[in-house]
Amino acid sequence: MAKKTKKAGKPEKQKTDKLKARKWKARAKALKARLASVPLVAKSKVSVVSPLAPKDGFPVLPEIAGLELATAQAGVRYQNRTDVMLARLAPGTVIAGTFTRSATRSAAVLDCQAKLGKGDESTGAAILVNSGNSNAFTGARGRESVNALSAAVAARLGLPENRVFTSSTGVIGEPLPHERIEAALDGLVTDLSPATLPDAARAIMTTDTYPKGAMAEVEINGQTARIAGIAKGSGMIAPDMATMLVYIFTDVKIGQKQLQSLVSRLTDSSFNSITVDSDTSTSDTLLVAATGQGPALEDMRSAEAKAFERALGEVMLNLAHQVVRDGEGATKFVGITVTGAADDADARRCALAIANSPLVKTAIAGEDPNWGRIVMAVGKSGAAADRDRLGITFGDITVATAGLVDPDYREEDGAAYMQNEDLDIGVDLGMGNGKATIWTCDLTHRYIDINADYRS
336 with 351: CB under 8 angstroms? Predict the structure, then answer.
């Protein structure tokens, strides 16, 4: 007759529980000590460059004929760093742009929108940008600041006021001390130079951890056309557009309407296809200036025009990706591609739901291949979906097919893939031919550190 296993008595169980309690207490104490040794970077204001920053640093940007720039320390908000950028553009320059669709957009955005495509192009143009204060939600005073700065720049450069475009980025709701910027204008005009794009990229930064630049060159009618752009953006990043300022310059000669058509179309597949935190800014501005000092584009159906469009699109997408790579606290760059949707709009809706899900983003931060959270995001997105048709991939790894975990999927393979800095997540809805790609980043505690004391 087999002996019965003797159950642990009450004293023995209490002893075991005490041992477990001491063990967990010791672990908690060790973890507390580790956390105490980690510096609170945001509190100490120490700048830490994003681990996703371009490995080669800031690119060498070509000089653009007809463009001069200068930067200055105006003390708008920051001390001991440049915070104002002025660009002077040659007569004949045309300017196109896209802007935030926020219902609470800033005075500068509204002013730029009103001026776009108007004014005498033969007089030239200017762009004035400040960081540290967004001049948003500042009422009549905000409009007065924009008007005062436009008039001051116009007077110094001999331009009509409707050819001066201003942008502001930074804290919302505080009056812009525009008199500090005005005081810096004479020095800015004196310092104007064609070789200061890298300095301009730094002057427009806020919580960015590195300056962002991109360039391209393309042959048009046997001549080299040049494109160079800079951007700022790190948080409050979501489509329509993101919290970003982007300035792209080219020497191509092109009509304003033709340039505007290109920029509007390319924005949708670049800056309107990124998200860091799903929050749409009040101040987003993208301006593209063509100085007309280089080769001319006359037939927009020509091979040269198509090549220029591709090159411009590459610069815009490069800058958009850099904004995500500098997402506040980001450690992972993530591309989310949805295929098999009922239409492209549904694919985009689904991809954004995944990209903006805090549960998905924190799982990515923790390198957890939690595909269940992706299923959740698909279900809540509002896109037409069928559980039993759904497929999911992590890079080349098939995770789920036809609504079920793939029989060959191994959790350790998914976990190993999640350790990469660059990740690709694929979702196939099995509903049609619609497709879309959205780029995002993970969500870490560093995001909280940065935004909890942004104004302090």
Answer: yes
